[in-house]
Structures are given as C-alpha cells and as structure tokens.
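User: Teach me something about this protein's shape.
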Amino acid sequence: AQPSKPAQSDAGHGAKPAEKAEDAPSSYQTLLEKLYRTPKEKRYVEKDGLVFDPSKIVRRTAEGVAIPHGNHYHFIPYSKLSTLEEEIARNIPVAGQKTYPKVAASIPSQPAKPADKDEHDHGFHAEHVISKDEEGYVVQHGGHAHYFFKKDLSKDQIAAAEANLAKHKDS
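Assistant: First, the predicted structure itself:
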C-alpha cells in the first residue's frame, strides 16, 4: 500500500477518515486517541476558540490544512501545530487528497501583515490572499488565516486574487 495514494471513500464517511484499516494504519487511530486525550491548553486553538481537530480536515495543502468553523474555513499552517498534530494533519487520510510528509513539504509563504479589520469579518478579501492551491486560496485574517474554495468565489474575486498573488510574486 502506498500512503500517498488517495483514499477511496463514500462522501458520507468523511467525518471519521481513520476508520478503514486499508485507508489508515491503526497507528493513526492511536495518534488520534492520544491527541484527543491531550489537554486543550496543549493543543492548537485559534483566537476565536476553534480547537484543531484533524478528523475535520476538508483540504490539505503543502503548507497546512483547512477545517470548517461555522460559516467559514480556517487555514492552519503546519508550523503552528504541535509535533503530534502536525504528524496527523500531514498524513491522516482525507478523501481524494495526497499526503504531505514533513520531509516533502514546501517552505510556507510569508503571510501578509495581519489585517486590522473586524475579527468577525469572514468575507473574502483578495488583497489579503497569501497563497493558493488548485482548489482555493489562503487569506490572512487577523492573527490566523482562512481558506476559500474557488467554487465558492465569483470570477471577479478569483481574478482579483490572482492579480494580488502576481503583484506579490513580482515584488
């Protein structure tokens, strides 16, 4: 079995990606159990109270993961996670997505200066886009980042995001 091979699973089984033995070695279940026993103060927690839970990963990139929180997605860079959280996040099966073992990870892009906008504004701001992958954009928001799927954005928003990324690439 190749660990980087995308897992075949039904869409309805995404909440617990480590259930099938062929998709995830029992070691991942053990790591998840260890993480869930870890006190909250030793886990990654965003300012708005979101506690990192690898079973909720909806998108994995070379730089981090996206997880849902209410009506938006948080993007959490691997560099902010504990060693245990990072190991799980990089390798736990996520339907149809490849893994990013630590040795193969790219260097994360430098985030833009945090915006001083309202911490509760979860809207897409193309001027704060810091990176992208084939399915979406990472947007700096205060002291953390959000993930926006391209499928949820207008053509104008995508064009503005691409223009912002090109501007920063050239500078």
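Now, about its shape. DSSP finds three helices and six strands in the chain. Residues 155-170 form the longest helix (16 residues). If you'd like, I can walk through any region in more detail.
User: That's plenty for now, thanks!
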